[in-house]
Amino acid sequence: MCANLTHELDVRGLQPPEPFELIIGALQTLPAGACLHVHIHREPYPLYEVLLDGGYDWQTTELEDGSFSIRISYNP
Amino acid sequence: MKTIALNTQQAPPISVPLRFFSAAPLFLLLAALILLSGAGNPFADMRSPALLAATHCITLGFIAMIMLGAMQQILPVVIVSPMPASRLTAWLTFLPLISGALLLPAGFMLGKPVLLNLAWPLLGLAFITFIIASLISLARSPAYNATKTALLLSILALSGAIALGMLLAHGYANGSQLPYAKLSASHIMLSLGGWVLLLIIGVSYQVVPMFQLTPSYPEWLGIGLTPAIFIVLALNLLSVLFEFRPQWVVIAGQSMFWFLAGCFAVATLILQNKRRRRVADATLSFFRMGMMALLCAALFALATLIFPAIDRFVTLSAIFFMLGFAMSLINGMLYKIVPFLVWFHLYRGGVKRGVPNMKEIIPEHWMWRHLWLHRCTMLAALFAPWWNAAAWLVSLGLLLQGMLLGYALITAISVYRGTLKRLGENLL
Hints:
A: alpha+beta, globular, B: 12 helices, 78% helix
């Protein structure tokens, strides 16, 4: 899905819309071929719409503690 | 109680809610000008034409305008079911509402029946369109949660409030023989105690835990509170319309309503006290202020039951409910939602550079200024029924708040339009 490079971003416990802002900021500086791995306390539905429009792929996994792990990669 | 995950995939175009939001501050200005233009102290007499006109400017032009606009955004998000024909519904709601909200206060102020006769069918059209569209949306919704129940009950209360409001306005305009005192009391009960309170409670179940990072409301509260309020409201309505005796039944019913409203305020304050991140936030402070104002409104209403001779406690309770509670929460929600909507819609179509930071859309220091202005307005409101200078200060406070909120919303819309233009995209 992506090259060896994975950037980690933990936005758990941040007040909306900070998680959304940080994720978008991280995607803008993500090197080509890299993945962004996000750890978030709530499933970010609005983000999915932006990812879809922007040509990103993502995979969401719900973790045992109720938080979510999302792996995002650019797929133009 | 679990907060549902928000879904914006069926949200309407940004122009739909922003149209309602940007019109609302004009009615604050109008209400303030009406209050300032009246002779004497308009807050000293609940039946003064100036207070009646200003109250309807605020309830229809400000509170309902924003709540109807917000509902078109909220329904697809919290119950996963958009309004049918969202653009048409928005226009059929917005145009008659703005016209009716101008004509009705003008009719009260100028004592012109023709204006009232123009206003009530327009307002009827706006609200009936909204009610039918909301009920269709609720019926189509696959969601089953406390928010959906609260929204349904608030819409039912709104239906009764609008029917009574149309009857009253028609009666005033045509000099019909009607039991005005009983009908007015029922209209106020259903519109403020039903529609406004139940809608705010339902929406708070979702937005307080989500935006303020608090624990969720307790499940028993979510399931039981809004139906309990609705039942008590219905019993109180019957007791007013059919003049139940003995008096203690009326007092018990009123006390129960305010006790339940107070439970919501206390529960919200407790949750806010348990929030995970204790950072200063103007929108949260607006919410806290709203909850404290709801408790004050309850205390003043209970004081009226104990001291029925002091009728100005009724005025204070109404002021604290409308301006202190409803307006605080509406301001808090607008300052949270509008920057997000602008920012989110700028990112529709993909992740791009050149979109401003969310904090640049409405500068935060404007929100804090507005909060302090609102606090000062409410402090003056405490003395307004007795002291003319305080009444004048309340009017001035509303005028400045209308200007400040209007400026903030115009700033947000300018940022949206300017950024789209810079990025070379079409306006939605």
